[in-house]
Amino acid sequence: MAISIDKGKQLAASPSEVQLPSGTITLRQTLSSDLTGGESVTITYSLALSHNVSFQTADGGIKKQIQSEVKITSGTPVTQTIKLVETGGGTNIAQVTIKELIDGEENNVRGSVVIAIQQ
């Protein structure tokens, strides 16, 4: 099995409803690895290229995809903070989906969370 998302601990966002540009949004979940000693994983968070909502990095950069490296054992809480911004004009969308890919040593796991956009 290798890497897995703990039952009931799937990717969640707080707050789950924001205005743009957003303040800090915290993404949380709990991951486990059944490999002896755990494993290092790469977590990639992505936004749809067709939407005009992007991640804003700590240095002010704009990206559609961000990554983090995490060491996972059993029941490891994982937290990532993000900010969302409009790019290329006003948005009429009511929500955005943040997709994630967790790339482990023996397998990959996917997840997602929806964030509502206040108009």
What do you see in this structure?
The protein is mostly beta strands. It has a single domain (3-117), classed as Immunoglobulin-like (Sandwich), CATH 2.60.40.10. The protein has no helices and twelve strands. Strands 3-12-11-5-8 form a five-stranded mixed sheet, with no helix packed on it. The model has no long low-confidence stretch (mean pLDDT 94).
Q: What is the CATH topology assignment?
A: Immunoglobulin-like
The CATH homologous superfamily is called Immunoglobulins
Number of domains: 1
Per DSSP, the total helix count is: 0
Rg, Cα atoms, Å: 15 Å
Proportion of strand residues: over 45%
Biggest sheet: strands, sense, closure?
Answer: 5 strands, mixed
Q: Which CATH-level-2 architecture?
A: Sandwich
**Low-confidence regions:** none
Distance between the termini: 42 Å
CATH class: Mainly Beta
**Biggest sheet: strand arrangement:** 3-12-11-5-8
Instruction: Quote the average pLDDT.
Output: 94
Which characteristics define this entry?
Immunoglobulin-like, 119 residues, elongated, mainly beta, five-stranded mixed beta sheet, single chain, four-stranded antiparallel beta sheet
Outline the secondary-structure elements.
Layout: E1 3-5, E2 12-14, E3 17-18, E4 25-33, E5 39-46, E6 53-56, E7 62-63, E8 65-72, E9 76-82, E10 84-86, E11 95-103, E12 108-117
Parallel strand pairs: 3-12
Antiparallel strand pairs: 1-4, 2-4, 4-9, 5-8, 5-11, 6-7, 6-10, 11-12
